[in-house]
Amino acid sequence: MTRVIHTGDTHLGYRQYHSPERQRDFFRAFERVVTDAVEDDVDAVVHAGDLFHDRRPGLRDLQGTVAALRDLADAGIPFLAVVGNHEGKRDGQWLDLFEDLGLATRLDDEPHVVGDTAFYGLDFVPRSRRDDLDYEFAAHDTDYAMLVSHGLFEPFAHADWDTERLLAESSVDFDALLLGDNHAPGVEEVDDTWVTYCGSTERASASERDDRGYNIVATEVGTVAISRRGIPDTRAFRFVDVELQAGEGVERVREAVREHDCEDAVVVVTVTGDGEPVSPAPVEELAIDRGALVARVNDRREFDEEQEVDVTFADPDEAVRERVRDLGLSQAARDVDETVRASKVADSNVRDSVKERVESLVDEDDLDAFEGAEPAAGDASDDAGGDPVEDDDNDTTDDPAPAESTDQSSQDEPPESEQASTDGGDTVRAGPDEAPETDATLDEPADEQAAGNDSQASMEEFL
To answer: Of 93, 264, 395, 461, which is most buried, counting CB atoms within 10 Å of its CB?
Structure first.
């Protein structure tokens, strides 16, 4: 029997909402996974990508990661991992450095055997390059085989990776795919193979309302058992959903905030309904006065253009969004704006993400995307000419399309999909004719503006 922790999307170094405390929260969640692994004496920790939020993590984040991995190594627990889209570099990867230090194993097409299981790895591959993949893996002589990878695989929400093709063309018959990139945990069966996402260890977006955690994957006689374990001490999020009736406005929203315990929490207010426009400043100020670490207001209702909406210095992004709508930009230009300003792509990755997006439009011969939107009648400089760009702190996914991430902006609500239990006790067993037991619906993946990395020099600059 082999028993491992399957984790991923830890996004170390992410200064969410520009908050140093949130940056520390992401590291504390990873430390909790390491502590659990040592206390439970698992056979390995398997990380399915996006260990870091950025290709150039800060020196302190690197030092903390080395210390955590050393704790695993001292306990005799191997750390097996693949490279995700957020941390991927053009040259050597951070995992290569950790492997040189004897602290990690970067999985690839060769089997890495732990107990009765051979683990293989497939780093994140951009969609434009997947047709060239041959899915050739070296043979193994163990009882079980599992592939660890990073991407949006079918049949989960926002999928763009053909799981059936991977399984059909692979030279190895896999018992399970252990995946990262989708921040919502879930389990599905495809062609007699279990396909599972572990979810993120911290809320990288306000859309990630379910508890955070990781998977326990164990091989038993003829089966693979997958169970879910929550991380109980992540930062509290208070979700204040307010549906305004006609005539109601900011005071009704403030009343709703007063009904919640805001102390040390991230307070996310979502406004819907037929009421008046709501300026974020007085609502956010109230939450902060009540002890909130961070407060954000999400009001994306559409109003008549002649109806005035106050924009305060507490919400400069609203002014930017209004101006972008007035410009009549092409779809391609709006995509670039989304990547540069309002997506969760890390600052150091923006240039490559924009280039990949433009190249993909050209390769797909989608030249219509470069045509500007027709301005409305009247003064073209004052009329909206495009779709609104979503708020940088409240997008519904983690990355825009160019970054090929879990986190994809402006997506529809994902279809219902089954997920593993979060109580740490239920398991799904991969017997010959057995289906996973699930009882919940997957949230859509997260999407948030990546806060700029601090100006620390990275270890990369010291090597």
So the answer is: 395
